[in-house]
Request: fold
Amino acid sequence: MSTSTTHFGYKQVATDEKIKLVGEVFKSVASSYDVMNDLMSLGLHRLWKRYFALTAGLKPGMRVLDLAGGTGDIAALALKQVAPSGQVVLTDINPAMLNVGRKRLLDQGHLQGLDFSLTNAEALPFPDECFDVVTIAFGLRNVTDKDRALREMKRVLKLGGRALVLEFSELKVAALKPLYDRYSFAVLPRLGKLIANDSASYQYLAESIRKHPNQAELAERFTEAGFQRVSVRNLSLGLVAIHSGYRLD
Reply:
């Protein structure tokens, strides 16, 4: 077992243990994940995801890999844009989350051009240069080795392909930060207890946002992973951000 450590929220844990702990969080919240997202973001997560998908440059016939795709929101939006000849592969490392996404998409009648894969973003089971676009929405902050995941995203992209990350980031209005912190650490765990009977998982999710690299740091990591034309677009005053990079070599 590795002796290195990493953060799990504000706690330091063995690197090998983090995947298990994160898995337990999402197993716990899977059945109520969308309800809690609506409550936590006041419904804004649906607008963020829709904007993310609509600005991803998707076209009919493209192959899209959606990492940490959870309940399938991004996959469903992408599938509409790459149809009828394109393909979307919905992945997640957590079986409970992937099962929720699979059931939802199949219940909605999404059959053609859709595949599922139980996948760790740090070790993608796909050949080099096989996707046009790779997306990950609200999942990168839960990945233990983010740099390795970014390198894997670049590896599986075709030349000219694009990687996009939608994630919570650093709020850019200092005056609002105390209110945001109070909401995150006082309100969210209580909502988690009320809706999902699990306050600890939502405490972790709030902490994980604060431990995630801010806009500038994540952009630098994109560049270090070999992406070019790296860009950052803030949404909702920087509460979330879209990072984008291209594989050009």
